[in-house]
Specification:
Length: 168
């Protein structure tokens, strides 16, 4: 008799209560995304993959000064310089080892030319270790970034006064 009562309570009380929880969430907006078809926008200050920037005339901004490599706490940046056809200095080799990189953004902070920046992309997983050694060609942007001029002014002022905070 006791077992029968227990079964009746389970079927007519506990199971409907469980279904109520399911039904309650069934009509709510899902918290998950249909990744990779839909992607959640990253926070404005998120630091993802690196890019090397160009000037408006297409010239590479990086002059291979080595300050980013000196600032890098993970020793992830390697470069070798050369001169372009106008005799200007640029990087012949510029590599970042993404397996060492901790995405701290110090390279971006240290760069006097605003040549390197960390974007929002985070999808660069792979099976081969060699795929994580990113070259200049992989990082160099096709077209100069349309940056907000006020952000650049803000960065220069911040650098001049050594303020620690940053904007993206
Ligand atoms: S983000 Fe940080 S760790 Fe990565 S390359 Fe730049 S300075 Fe080095
Ligand atoms: S990215 Fe900037 S700091 Fe690094 S070598 Fe090029 S110009 Fe210098």
């Amino acid at each position: 008799m006791k077992e029968v009562l227990k079964a009746v309570v389970n079927v007519f009380l506990k199971m409907p209560l469980g279904f109520m929880v399911t039904i309650k969430y069934f009509f709510r907006k899902p918290v998950t995304l249909d990744y990779p078809h839909k992607k959640r926008p990253m926070a404005p200050r998120y630091r993802g993959r690196h890019y090397l920037e160009r000037y408006d005339d297409g010239t590479e901004r990086c002059v291979c000064c080595g300050l980013c490599a000196a600032a890098c706490p993970a020793d992830a940046i390697y470069m070798e310089p050369e001169e372009n056809e106008k005799g200007e200095r640029r990087a012949r080799i510029y590599e970042i080892n993404l397996l060492r990189c901790i995405f701290c953004g110090f390279c971006e902070e240290a760069c006097p030319e605003e040549a390197i920046f960390l974007g929002h992309e985070y999808e660069f997983s792979d099976y081969e270790r060699s795929s994580f050694l990113w070259t200049k060609e992989q990082m160099l942007v096709q077209h100069p970034r349309k940056d907000n001029p006020f952000k650049r002014i803000y960065r220069r002022v911040r650098k001049a006064y050594g303020a620690p905070d940053k904007i993206s």
